[in-house]
Amino acid sequence: MSERTIALVTGANKGIGYEIAAGLGALGWSVGVGARDPERLEEAVGKLRAAGVDAFGVPLDVTDDASVAAAARLLQERGGRLDVLVNNAGITGGRPQEPTVVDPGLVRDVVETNVIGVIRVTNALLPLLRRSASPRIVNMSSSVGSMARQEAAGPGEGQGPISAAYAPSKSFLNAVTLQYAKELHGSNILINAGCPGFCATDLNGFRGYRTAEQGAQVAIRLATLPDDGPSGKFFDDDGEVPW
Ligand SMILES: NC(=O)c1ccc[n+]([C@@H]2O[C@H](COP(=O)([O-])OP(=O)(O)OC[C@H]3O[C@@H](n4cnc5c(N)ncnc54)[C@H](OP(=O)(O)O)[C@@H]3O)[C@@H](O)[C@H]2O)c1
């Protein structure tokens, strides 16, 4: 078994996921680069290796059972365990998303990736995580999923665009994160949700005011929590985010 900490980052071919992979690699970790497109995967692994990261490719579409099972087999064969899983892959689903006009199919697609994809990947990899001395799971959420902040934004206003798909998918993901933490309480697995802030990536047409590298920092912090660290919480760079 590898002495190095082994991590997997989903959706790591670009944006915040790529920067999380780069940041974890800079710690000397072995980093599985999860990506659904073979060419984008190869390119990202090549770039990370050129930067000195011990990166390896993990073909992974989080919406596809067979792809996730194959990724679990690859990790089993490669390291026999997984120390850190960062569930980063996510989509907004496009527009319109206002509740009164949204296409229910769009909502279903967003939930399939942003929530069910996380459950699918996490459960497939739990047997490998359970073999780690200090397993950590980080779910990349968003403060737009904070019900408290949505309420505080006031009537007629959203925390981010008013949406029946993307923002509620992150509320759902937050709720699921908390439920995992409850079930895993008493084990050595810590699971938390992180918000990267509004970062300039493909996800928002590069309108964010933070860099993807800045957005990656919260995930790196939650991936490196000490054994007595929190679980079942939601954080951004400024501290805990209300549910
Ligand atoms: N950017 C922000 O301001 C912001 C704010 C709050 C939260 N977040 C969250 O941070 C995470 C990363 O976002 P980002 O801004 O870096 O977005 P991004 O640049 O669009 O990257 C998203 C990544 O997810 C991958 N992905 C999408 N669907 C997938 C699937 N079915 N299977 C595997 N990979 C899939 C994409 O792969 P492809 O290249 O193949 O499409 C890409 O690698 C997301 O969960 C997002 O919701 C972002």
From TrEMBL:
Keywords: NADP, Oxidoreductase. The lineage of its organism: Bacteria, Bacillati, Actinomycetota, Actinomycetes, Micromonosporales. This is SDR family oxidoreductase. It comes from Dactylosporangium salmoneum. Belongs to the short-chain dehydrogenases/reductases (SDR) family. CDD domains: carb_red_PTCR-like_SDR_c (cd05324). Pfam families: adh_short. Transmembrane segments: none annotated. PANTHER family: (+)-NEOMENTHOL DEHYDROGENASE, SHORT-CHAIN DEHYDROGENASE_REDUCTASE. InterPro entries: CBR1-like, NAD(P)-bd_dom_sf, SDR_fam.
